[in-house]
Amino acid sequence: MEFYSHPDKLLTEHLLEVKNKGIDLLPEEYKEVYSIIALTHDFGKYTSFFQDHLLRNVKSNNLSSHGFISALFGAYVALDRLEEECYLPLISYNVILHHHGNLENMKNNLPREIKVLKDEDYGELWTKVKVAKEQIENLKENKVAIYQDLTKLGIENHFSMFIEDDSAIKETLVKLKKINYFFEKEPDLTKYYFLHQILYSTLIYSDKLSAAKIGENGLPKIEFEEVDKSKRNLFPTSKKEIDRIRDEVYNKVINNIEKYSNEYKIFTVTSPTGTGKTYAGFLGALKLRDKLGLKGKIIYSLPFTSIIDQNYDSLERLLTSIDDFDENKSKYIIKHHYLTNREYQTQDSDYSNAQAELLLETWQSDIVVTTFVQLFQTLIGNRNRMIKKLISFRDSVIIIDELQSIDVKYLKLIDYVLRNAVENLNIRIILMTATKPLILTDAIELLDDNEKLYSYFDRTKLIPKLDKITIDEFVEEFMNNIEDKSYMIVVNTISESLQIFNKIKDLDRKVYYLSTNLIPKHRRNIIKKVKEELEKGENIILVSTQVVEAGVDLDFDVAIRDMAPLDSIIQVAGRCNRNALNQKGEVYIYRFIDENGREFSSFIYSEVLINITKDILKDFTCIDEKNYYELIYKYYTLVMDKINKDRSTDLIDSIKKLNFDDGKNSISSFSLIENKPIYQEVLVLYDDDIEQAFEKFKNLKNYKDYETKRNEYLKIIPTIKEYILSVPTKYVKEFQIDNNLCIIPQIAIDDYYDIVTGLRREYDNNALIL
């Protein structure tokens, strides 16, 4: 008799594949427990209930489920092969139990009491226990065939004992309950958190790749010397001062990597905006990996999707000299975020959309350009879909660019998790910023005289204008003093940005608008157009929310910033006279208020951060760029002293207790992007491209085969995401519902959406850009 894990794959073949795909990714001390997990994770598929369900679509309610019985058997084997006093059998049980779902606390699936005397002692577990007992009776009917199958895996004797011992379920659960009793008494389970997550990640990573029939991908390892040569060819020595400084930054980073690579695990590159940190950090990471012989990836993480393409293109440019790069681009470099196109390009395989999505989501590439959301919600989380790529973090070098963009309430948490990830995942970290936050303070700075770098620059100056001012008053002042220069006006809320834009849009020059009030496709087009205009020397004006702040490579003569935390102000300064091509750029700081006298900054920023910024700026009429370093150091010192760290502390406590899903501060509650309950997604059917994609979306219901349906869905979803707006709920009632999506149909576009400013809305001070 043959047993299948999937319609076209034998169960033993799948179990061995899952073992073999994962085991070489793990350190030696994890291999035995992972082998047990991998070989038992689908044990429950040996029941005829599951086989009938899989092959003949016969329904049998819970009897065809395989998670609980597989977890029991995995724990049973682990208890025999591993020391009962250790925690590995309990971790194995939880990992297997949740390999098709999100993680839960261990106690959720254990008896109420250590002594199980009667059915009610199992608590809510009793239903699962009853099903497992019936499944064991079913397994006995095919025990000879199953025994023969399991001899290929070396667990045939455990199988015989498990099904013949009437007390196996009870004794296994009692032993796990005892282990958990001592487990919960441990004051700090952080190292077990990482062990648990790595085993879980390796299982679901290998399981999904096996199920998707994806073989070994044979990823290359890009070497420093090759890319260094490419960089020097692309950017030959120049006599320009800014290029001389960039070369100096690059050479110092590479030399200090050589010097400190064996002594330190966390590095920082702190230098002013526009000094070539992207290339210096990336090649520094390659140098570090080569020097240490690390087997992992280069992971380049950034705060926003809006700057992923820009950095990806910069790195891609360095790699084009590799012989087979064009044919196998995805093996060398990918970008991964929620808007990523589901394409995976190699010359030797034609992947379906579902396979391509899985290859991207498991980071099957040597270089990954991704977002903070993907990075940190994989390190801190309980979601199956995110954690499956955690195994790809091991032995990697992670570049974290512009960490100051993270909400300060999470800095203590991020510091804690990164320090522990370095030790438990054998990673190295390069933290890059122009405004270094005071975390990871014992890291080694690769630009050891970086204060001198700041003194080199005289590109910009901050000019605080801290008297409160209305939008009308500002516009009048602006129009009376406008010069033959390019201007960028950055404000805090969409309502502010719309008011200012509409009051100045008829000036005798080009005025552009940028915010999340525009669909992603139009935002990207605006950034491209603005960049082109600036490079031509046009004196344009851009009115924007802070979506333009970090990493967007724009260069204006003058910047105007509504009051914000100081690090945000410095980021805006980095978009002003960026390449030192003009006379000193002016960065004006205003305090805009609404008609009720309330500052717009108060709608989205912490009062603590704003007050710290005001206190620092109030004594200055002008601050030159050479003083930014000292200014930002003072700011972060005050911030770290005054911010409320409770949220970070609570989440750290949940990590220490392996609290995945219990309470408002459980691991599952962590999200870098806060949920906005007063907002709802709306699909804007602006043009024929999205109309066609939406028609295909509506036709998905006609597909009966899941795999075909999934592939078709993946073809169209990147287009759909390009036309999605997050809209305040109060506006949504105006729109129609079609196939459970809130839409603005093309026939109503003129009434509800403007290609220049996006969604047509009343001015609303609470319409924020996050």
Describe, in plain words, how this protein is organized in 3D.
- The termini are far apart.
- This protein is globular.
- The chain has 770 residues and is of the alpha/beta class.
- Helix 11 runs antiparallel to helix 13 (277-292), helix 25 runs antiparallel to helix 26 and helix 28 packs antiparallel against helix 29 (706-721).
- It is 46% helix and 13% strand.
Write the layout of secondary structure elements.
Blueprint: E1 4-6, E2 9-10, H1 11-23, H2 28-40, H3 48-56, H4 67-81, H5 88-97, H6 126-141, H7 143-151, H8 156-164, H9 168-183, H10 190-211, H11 224-234, H12 241-260, E3 266-270, H13 277-292, E4 298-302, H14 308-319, H15 329-332, E5 333-336, H16 353-361, E6 367-371, H17 372-379, H18 384-387, E7 397-401, H19 411-425, E8 428-433, E9 444-445, H20 450-456, E10 460-470, H21 471-481, E11 487-491, H22 494-504, E12 511-514, H23 520-535, E13 541-545, E14 558-562, H24 566-573, E15 585-593, H25 607-617, E16 623-624, H26 628-642, H27 646-656, E17 679-684, H28 688-698, H29 706-721, E18 724-728, H30 729-732, E19 736-738, E20 741-744, H31 749-752, E21 753-754, E22 758-759
Parallel strand pairs: 3-8, 3-9, 4-6, 4-7, 5-6, 7-8, 10-15, 11-13, 11-14, 12-13, 14-15, 17-20
Antiparallel strand pairs: 1-2, 10-16, 17-18, 19-20, 21-22
Helix pairs in contact: 1-2, 1-10, 2-4, 2-5, 2-10, 4-5, 4-9, 5-10, 7-8, 10-19, 11-13, 12-13, 19-27, 21-22, 25-26, 28-29
